[in-house]
## 1
Amino acid sequence: MKSEVKNYNLLARAIHWLSALVVIAMFAVGLWMVDLSYYSEWYRTAPHWHKSVGLLFAGVTLFRLAWKIVTPSPKVEGAAYEVIGAKLAHLAMYGLLFALFVSGYLISTEDGRGIDVFSWFTVPGLGALFEGQADLAGQVHFYLAWGLILLAAVHALAALKHHFINKDNTLRKMIGASK
Ligand code: HEM
Ligand code: HEM
């Protein structure tokens, strides 16, 4: 039997809030860096950081899902349609994240080079897997990023609605303060 818990555990909460910050920062840096001129001091550094953080974040997200499987999560509260909507949104956000990791990898490795993660280690590149890979993956990456940020905004508004209007434990369980 699955034990009932009221809060997300500390590690799940820490990763959730860290992920929220990383997603917002990656989105902002992504849009900013593609418009940098060759003469900007950030021209190489910003994409290097975007890719390095992105790959580390992919590892953290894989770990997050494994952790979710082995530890109990609190129940989603609200009307049946809200519970289904919330679960679909959570699933979609995980899906969008992985699609971003894959498309980001495909943009970066078309030329066969690996991705250097903060000069700590290199994730090998598979080279071009299909025609026009970097261009196509770049467009997909752009729309996925917008999709994720808009869905996360709706998700955050829903959490605030539960907190201030329904006055239930939805937001509290993500800060460890369920009643
Ligand atoms: C494995 C992880 C990731 C890698 C390797 C990666 C790689 C890249 C690369 C190479 C670009 C430049 C594309 C170009 O030159 O047109 C880019 C752009 C961008 N990335 Fe990522 N990325 C990753 C994850 C993410 C995540 C999690 C977000 C979060 C929302 C994100 C948001 C963006 C945005 C908004 C752009 C600008 C797109 C544009 O305006 O064309 N990326 N990314
Ligand atoms: C910006 C990027 C964000 C992403 C990608 C994101 C993603 C997620 C995901 C995937 C879950 C499901 C956790 C699980 O059970 O596996 C979740 C839960 C939750 N998130 Fe976010 N989130 C973000 C931002 C926020 C913000 C800004 C708030 C608050 C204003 C928030 C509040 C919550 C709450 C309260 C839950 C628990 C929902 C429940 O179990 O009923 N999130 N989030």
## 2
Amino acid sequence: MSEVAFLPEHRFKPANTAQEEFLDAEDKIVAYVGGLGSGKTHVGAFWAITMMLTYRHAQGLIAANTYKQLESATLPKVFQLLDELGVRYHYNSQTKILRLKLKGATGLIHCRSLSEYQDLRGIEFLWIWLDETRDTKEEAFKVVLGRLRQRIYPDGRPVPTAIPPSEKLDLVPTKLRITTTPDMLKCKWLYDYLHNLEIRQKLSEDGISVREIKASSRQNPYLEKDYIALLEASYDSELAKQEIEGDWVLIPIGKPVFGTSFVPKIHLGKFTFNPHKPLIIGLDWGYHHPAAVFCQEDSQDHWIVLGELLERDKETTEFCEAIWKYINQRFPEAKEFDCYCDPAGKQRTSKSRKSDIEIAREYKLYPICKKSEILDGIAVIRRKLGKLIAGLPALVIDENHCPLLVEGFRGAYHYPEKIDPAQPDKLVPFKDGKYEHLFDALRYIGINKYHVMNPGQRTDNQPAYDVVDPVTGY
Ligand SMILES: Nc1ncnc2c1ncn2[C@@H]1O[C@H](COP(=O)(O)OP(=O)(O)O)[C@@H](O)[C@H]1O
Ligand SMILES: [Mg+2]
């Protein structure tokens, strides 16, 4: 199929052997499992277009996990290739139907989000392409697989409904294609479809052959040169195996949150307070373990963590007093303060009828806050650890004044040993009641000062576990 050429100048040139294999594969289910930028969407889109043009009477399905993902990453690639191939088309964003403008009959291509997979019941498809299945639930996949049953003869005529499916006919085989980055946590079910012998045997008894094709991001010559370097800088070595090599890896369970990103030799040091620069404070509220971290930036924008304060069983008023006591002892010359905190501090508690932020303001602390995901904040910290500015990491820690943070960075702050059954696809650091609060305080600084999340734009701060492609944002 890779030989299909619509116009001589539009011959498809595979980026790697994986793409070639994907286009040639005859199996019913084929999954292209690859790293970010390994050509998944591109080859999936090309396959879908080939199916549209080859089986013009058929119904096809192109699906991603959300409409946002579908319409901003998956379909644009289809449209780009259709334009390049000189095929005219019309996409109705209301009905989510794509039609090619060809002479004679043209089929319908349904473009859907698999978050609303129930909508698909009742439609039968000859071919299906699912992009970024890592975010798809197994139930959705099962419904999709059940819809892969349009029966047409090779000349395009539909099989009359009176002929039962049990009758042996010479029909066009139905096909399902998946293009995704792997993710053991989010889509272990797909791993099982591809690797579990029992499941594969059962599928094979039903006449369903399954094939996995692996692709590394390194094998795409169409990527910009610095793309792989950007990915390498974004992920720990374990995570890189997943995001770059496209390997199925069971990563962070029970492991240190910062893993190999933290190197004591280079991230720890002795630093002095500069009274001409603001003191940056991160605050995590809470009666049992309110926490504060004290930082500064130097003239080269290094983020320097100078101190930590973890209190026990303190009302917010007492916590604020403790903060001032700490500041007066350690940074008596501090004049300017930049303060960031947990957005939950906006809520008024029934007890005091004042919010934590309101109380802090009475103590001349003026924290600001922004809603964020834990994983985004961790990603900011991880990125800063991995970045060098003038030979020094962008984030450094005072080795004498941050004992708990140092323990946390060394591994005490870790992922849980078990996945939370209530949130099987979300892995956030273990709620240890201790380190987590100091890292939360650090995260609030990271999120407010250093996090720029703008899909489509290369940013310094990318979520590290809930991974997104640094270029597309998906
Ligand atoms: N065979 C190919 N020919 C031309 N460009 C390609 C090819 N394969 C991939 N690319 C380009 O490489 C980039 C990354 O591919 P893409 O499919 O978006 O990656 P992924 O979906 O795996 O993240 C895109 O700009 C894409 O158009
Ligand atoms: Mg893609």
## 3
Amino acid sequence: MKVTTTASTSGAVPANAVPASSSRASRIAPHSHIKGLGLSAEGFAQASAAGFVGQEVAREACGVVVDLIKTRKFSGRALLLAGAPGTGKTALALAIAHELGAKVPFCPMVGSEVYSAEVKKTEVLAEAFRRAIGLRIKETKEVYEGEVTELTPAEAENPLSGYGKTISHVVIGLKTVKGTKQLRLDPSIYEAIMKEKITVGDVVYIEHGSGAVKRVGRSDAYASSYDLESETYVPLPKGDVHKRKELVQDVTLGDLDAANARPQGGQDIMSVMGSLVRAGRTEVTEKLRREVNKVVAGYVAQGVAEVVPGVVFIDEVHMLDVECFTFLNSLLESPMAPTVVLATNRGRARVRGTEDVVAPHGVPVDLLDRCLIVKTVPYSRDEVGQVLKLRATVEGLQLGEGVLERLSAEGEKGSLRYALQLLAPASILASLQGRAEILEEDISEMNELFLDARTSAARIPLDGGFDGGL
Ligand SMILES: Nc1ncnc2c1ncn2[C@@H]1O[C@H](COP(=O)(O)OP(=O)(O)OP(=O)(O)O)[C@@H](O)[C@H]1O
Ligand SMILES: [Mg+2]
């Protein structure tokens, strides 16, 4: 028994890989306390939930948008989040991403990203839009599925060098309700097994043909009695070990474009879609996109694939210029458009790229006209306090008596962000003094060392520089 692995190195997205563009790493530390919009089942904002405090109207509005996106009624439209700095616009957008779940593509970018020396501005926008259109592909494939009962790599002398050994093949035992089977697999599959961190007792499936390995979960025979665990337990698969199974993969049009720009061989849908254009192309062109669209449309018509419109989030949208804005208008009107969420902290501002066109939020009126606008409002002292408390928990800091009140007051006077930013340095000061707890005196000292934006601005006269002003 041997599973062939001829196509396991196809240039298309491997079947078991999470497409890079739709996976969302939570690397944005300042927002790591935000877990969602914190709405009730009826869509009302709870005063403090899912890491979100206050800002009820904006949260409820975003909740409506999330519902519309989920029911696919908002694609090709735009939402604009407008408000003063530090009022939670970026946080709201990330909460929308959380609410949509991992299956709906969410493609965040910052307005200034379009200014690249190598890529055209419009190209950057077009690519972001492609990355925000998901495609769910259903395929029936021949697979081996079961609970791993045995996993033995067989070693052999390395013929190329005298040292070390290589793996000649790997023996894997799979068990289902109906029976067991032992497979002798190619060493390249062993690498995939190692990558998925598969051990005895896991339920896995291995695709016949591509040799892709996917871990489904841990067999529930191994379920432990812990209440809190990150592991997902799955029942022992039914049927034979070797069977036909319907597999679902999520990719984005951006992934398909990229895969086609670097085509390689293979037979399954992903590889065929990944080899429309053979020449060693490295750039995604409009022609290539049209070809991808055509094939995708074909699969959609056959019922093999389903389009999942996602979200493009453009933070600091006032950084775009007129050319980008007109292009954005046309993108919004294209038949395969995702939902667009924009954010800005500007009031009336000059539109970039024009001499004297002043528009609300620095966004031309024709784009504004296509937007639903949601306003974020400044926080009260009490709300600042609650956010601070959340952050202190996330950062693992202990606050002494009166610290929260003091910081809340600072936050009200300066900004929420200033108060949040004082937390970390204050904790360093405390630990220098050998304390685990932050005390009020640390905050006072911080205030001597650092200025909030408003105080700092007030110290420097409008016409003076640093030399003359202070
Ligand atoms: N309502 C809230 N509940 C909890 N945390 C919040 C809330 N609003 C803002 N924050 C936190 O405050 C900080 C500043 O907010 P955020 O970065 O979202 O502001 P912004 O509106 O995007 O500002 P800017 O216009 O400067 O980009 C972040 O760490 C964010 O997670
Ligand atoms: Mg922001």
## 4
Amino acid sequence: MGIFSELNLPAGVITGENVLKLFEYAKKNGFAIPAVNCTSSSTINATLEAARDIKAPIIIQLSQGGSAFYAGKGLSNDGQRASIMGAISAAHHIRTISKDYGIPVVLHSDHCAEKLLPWFDGMLEADIEYFKKHGEPLFSSHMLDLSELPKEKNISICKEYLKKMAEINLFLEMEIGITGGEEDGVDNTDVHNSSLYTQPEDIWDVYRELSQISKMFTIAAAFGNVHGVYKPGNVRLSPGLLKEHQEYVRAKLNCEDDKPVFFVFHGGSGSVKDEIKEAVSYGVIKMNVDTDTQWAYWEGLKGYYESKKDYLQSQVGNPEGDDKPNKKYYDPRVFIRESEKSMAKRVKEACHDLGNVNRL
Ligand SMILES: [Zn+2]
């Protein structure tokens, strides 16, 4: 039993129907897959290692800023060039090594606001090129975040993109309603409370319009979630709203499936575990993980430095002797590895929270 035998998925990056099968399976079996934001081969490898160790599929996602970082901060990002090339480079890294980790990987790009569309277009071009050669897109899925625009405009631009994406079997993730907090330069920390909760009619409008084009889309709805970790404020997480959304869409479709929509949970960092579980039971199949794994990566390095401090002050000389070399302590492979181990541990915890363990 499990993903490999029941769904016949390959190891490595999966696309198209295989992603659809995986998301359907997760929804039916009541678990979700963490989408871990990665910015380097080190964070990617740590994520793959974690998922392999607990026998689970994983989603790796790249933000626009993370993609530019992957290409190198020394490169100009004029016209989104570094973000495009960085995302493509990361995609090839993931494609090259992920089969060896023996797990299915969904390769996704994160939030793309309207002003960043050239980044999206650049990745899409690479997908089309890759499709011509290999019969599948380079990425599995991309996200468009036009939640700042009026609903009609948000939906109509998503439709235009989904038409192009459907031709090469790409998934689209869209966002409706506003997730609080700040991410990649979009600051929603002072948005009015009511717009932090998407209404059922909004979900139906999105579902009705997009499902005419393709089944391959997911919706990030706002239910009081916030990007980043903040002190508890006046925003309250209401996962129960997702249940109402599902019921509303089910009634409109008059279908058997009590969870017709694939939901994505943004801003899950710092959430109470019970709220995460509840959201998953209402059809969340993907939860973004960024802030908590960033902290874990740093914490690994911090702990290492604190425990080896006296060996890290000069190239030669430590408590064992003035002539003792410290090379084996300051070799980046040693201290970066500590970050990787700590991050992998946090990725595993996210998988546990979402029920994404022993699924292969
Ligand atoms: Zn979001």
